[in-house]
Design brief:
alpha/beta; 9-stranded mixed sheet; 3-stranded antiparallel sheet; 14 strands; 14% strand; globular
């Protein structure tokens, strides 16, 4: 009934939001003399604040229209190149000169943990000048009809494998946060099956490979609650008239409630500051607030089976590091991974995936040669800073590109890739699929509902003074080690590109 009440409440407020929009338009109209007074700006600010705090935020767009390649600005267009009911694959197509040497291809596997793939907009933007970028665009579960079937952790792995086969041999796959586990599972299955489309490199960033290592408050709370608590407290049915009517989900609005409750005082202060920025006519500061919260408040439902299976296998049973993880009932051996180079990246101040949790992948992938593995610990960033912000652009992204250039040619297909490798049906759009009307860990948002939320969850790490800098990272001592060697600069990557890698 809670989901139905939420939808009903939103519908009841619709006329009031319309009035607020009209009021804002009147009091911001430059033809209205009152709009130039403090009173006029105050009325407009109250109207906008009411509308923004009561709306349901739709799916954001990437809005990446150009990039610089070899010093030249080139247009970029995101296009859907593969599609199934629960996900589509976006390609950021760059208008490059004909005959130019191909760049490395990157498949970014975005988290399915509450927010949309646009949370990785900065990740895509930083890598666009140096490669062909593809990203998984997961669908809001409430927009997928029950007739489309279930989607669990096994399905997630299936989707990753199908995307890698669609793209062909030599792709560089990147798992950001939660996808680190299913990406490892997919690569292990492909390696065991001698699949010629196995990725050349695998980059895992801030992922919960082994949450027994340096456990965070989020990890501890997930384990303490147990799977039954999650099943009883956060799983609901999608109400009518949504396309996914009747599907069991972990609702996006409930996740957002958890996100907000973790640092409610900071959110209240941010909205109070937003109000006064509007009154003082500080347009830049107000726009930064809008940009951040347009992304932060846009959340999606997760299928109950995927969410519960992930919580149980990754955070409670620790099935991956214990060697008991299965895919469709068949145990997966991470030791089978031997031809795919491994790069792991962690943030020194990460309070979602603690230092050492992602590095644990190296212990599991014991048969990857030493010269094909690198671990990098980024100083002075939290969870968000591992894949976004100024330090990501300056220090992490160049390492990812350099790693792909160094090891991308190691992966040689053992057999020609059949054109039928991807099921033709997977390229067809689903029968019903509509657009859904920051830290992104869904486990954390669920445990927050209990009132035991860890302070500092809204850590964004270093963002270079960008909109997310509103939320300060928690202080923590550096941990782990750095096996990456000397720093890699963007100039070095550019030179490598000019001379063929």
């Amino acid at each position: 009934m809670l989901y139905e009440f939420y939808e009903w409440n939103h519908a009841v407020l619709a006329p009031f939001r319309a009035v607020a929009d009209a009021t804002k338009a009147i009091y911001q109209n430059p033809m209205n003399p009152i709009s130039h007074t403090e009173m006029g700006r105050t009325v407009a600010a109250m109207a906008e604040l009411f509308e923004r705090t009561t709306r349901i935020y739709g799916k954001p767009s990437f809005d990446l229209h150009d990039t610089f390649v070899d010093g030249m600005r080139v247009p970029v267009a995101d296009k859907v190149v593969w599609q199934k009911p629960f996900a589509q694959l976006l390609h950021f197509e760059r208008a490059l000169p004909e005959g130019r040497k191909p760049d490395p291809r990157f498949l970014i596997v975005a988290p399915m943990s509450g927010h949309y793939a646009t949370l990785l907009r900065g990740t895509v933007e930083a890598l666009l000048p140096y490669g062909e970028i593809y990203i998984t665009d997961w669908q809001d579960a409430r927009t997928v009809p029950v007739s489309a079937g279930r989607f669990d952790l096994d399905s997630y792995v299936d989707y990753v494998i199908e995307m890698l086969r669609f793209l062909g041999p030599g792709v560089n796959v990147i798992g950001v946060c939660q996808p680190a586990v299913p990406v490892m599972m997919a690569v292990a299955r492909m390696e065991e099956d001698e699949d010629p489309c196995h990725p050349a490199t695998m980059t895992l960033m801030g992922g919960p490979i082994d949450t027994r290592v340096n456990p965070t408050a989020v990890n501890k709370l997930a384990k303490d609650k147990g799977i039954d608590w999650f099943r009883q407290n956060v799983i609901m049915k999608v109400p009518f008239p949504q396309p996914g009517f009747g599907r069991s989900v972990y609702p996006g609005f409930l996740q957002l409630t958890g996100f907000m409750s973790m640092n409610l005082d900071r959110h209240l202060i941010a909205h109070k500051d937003f109000f006064w920025h509007l009154v003082k006519n500080d347009g830049d500061s107000a726009e930064k607030h809008r940009t951040f919260y347009d992304e932060y408040n846009a959340v999606m439902d997760l299928t109950a089976e995927f969410y519960l299976q992930t919580v149980e296998e990754v955070f409670i049973k620790h099935s991956l590091p214990r060697g008991t993880i299965t895919h469709h009932g068949k145990r997966l051996d991470m030791g089978k991974i031997r031809r795919t180079a491994l790069l792991t990246v962690e943030g020194e101040n990460d309070d979602i995936s603690g230092v050492g949790q992602t590095r644990a992948a190296h212990d599991l992938c014991k048969n990857i040669p030493d010269d094909m593995r690198v671990h990098y610990l980024q100083p002075k960033v939290g969870h968000y800073g591992v894949f976004n912000g100024s330090r990501f652009r300056a220090e992490i992204a160049p390492r990812i590109v350099d790693f792909a250039l160094t090891h991308g040619r190691r992966a040689k297909p053992t057999a020609p890739v059949a054109e039928e490798a991807t099921d033709a049906a997977s390229l067809q759009p689903p029968p019903v699929l509509e657009d859904a009307s920051l830290p992104e860990d869904a486990v954390a948002s669920a445990v927050a509902i209990s009132g035991d939320a860890p302070f500092g969850y809204l850590d964004t790490g270093d963002t270079g003074g960008e909109t997310t800098a509103t939320f300060d990272p928690p202080a923590s001592e550096p941990q782990g080690d750095n096996l990456s060697g000397a720093p890699i600069l963007l100039d070095a990557v550019r030179e490598a590109r000019k001379h063929g890698g």
